[in-house]
Amino acid sequence: MPRTLFSTAFGLCALSWSEAGLTRFELPEALVQADDVTKPPFLAPLIARVQRHLAGEAQDFAGEPFDFTGVADFNRRVLLATLAVKAGHTSTYGQIAAAMGEAPAASRGVGAALGANRWPLLIPCHRVTGADGRMTGFSGPGGVETKARLLTLEGAALL
């Protein structure tokens, strides 16, 4: 997959894509080199929006062209439900399961799906907490510390 790096207030980030859309977003610290290829037209405005978001101007990435190729149906449903959690707000794994019409027991599967999220920040898995509001795992670089930093940047109330 082609890949491009770009600077943000958080550091260098990366985006990868296919003909079908975005295949991956990487927060700082998980980077290698970029590819020197022609970028699709949707990429420049998206990069500008990510830069604004990480500078403190909240953006909504729900309309981006995510390429869900190879993502299991349950995981895709989790990711789409998570797009409804807007900046400044949080949800729980159980609330995401309920939004999908699943039983509370599906919250573990929701957590696993979010742990495999290839688009952290764009699909805001950092906005999902434990039932008690506790900061649980975050698969992006920096773990829970990055999760808390993103939530603080977005103005979410933290315990």
Keywords:
globular; Arc Repressor Mutant, subunit A; 5 strands; three-stranded antiparallel β-sheet; 159 residues; alpha+beta; two-stranded parallel sheet; 5 helices
Write up this protein:
By secondary structure, the protein is of the alpha+beta class. It has two domains: 3-54, no CATH class; 73-153, Winged helix-like DNA-binding domain superfamily/Winged helix DNA-binding domain (Arc Repressor Mutant, subunit A, Orthogonal Bundle). Helix content is 31%, strand content 15%. The strands form two sheets. A three-stranded antiparallel β-sheet has the order 1-2-3, covered by helices on one side. Strand 2 (11-18) and strand 3 form a beta hairpin. Helix 2 packs across helix 4 and helix 3 (93-99) packs across helix 4 (107-115). The chain is globular, with a radius of gyration of 15 Å. The chain starts with a strand and ends in a 6-residue tail after the last helix. The mean pLDDT is 91.
Number of domains: 2
Radius of gyration: 15 Å
Global geometry: globular
Give the strand order, joined by hyphens, for the main sheet.
Answer: 1-2-3
Q: What is the name of the CATH architecture of the largest domain?
A: Orthogonal Bundle
Structural class: alpha+beta
Q: What is the CATH C level class of the largest domain, in words?
A: Mainly Alpha
The CATH homologous superfamily name of the largest domain equals Winged helix-like DNA-binding domain superfamily/Winged helix DNA-binding domain
Number of strands: 5
Order of helices and strands: EEEHHEHHEH
Strand count, sense and barrel status of the largest sheet are: 3 strands, antiparallel
CATH topology of the largest domain: Arc Repressor Mutant, subunit A
Unreliable stretches? none
Helical fraction equals 25-40%
Task: Please count the helical segments.
Answer: 5
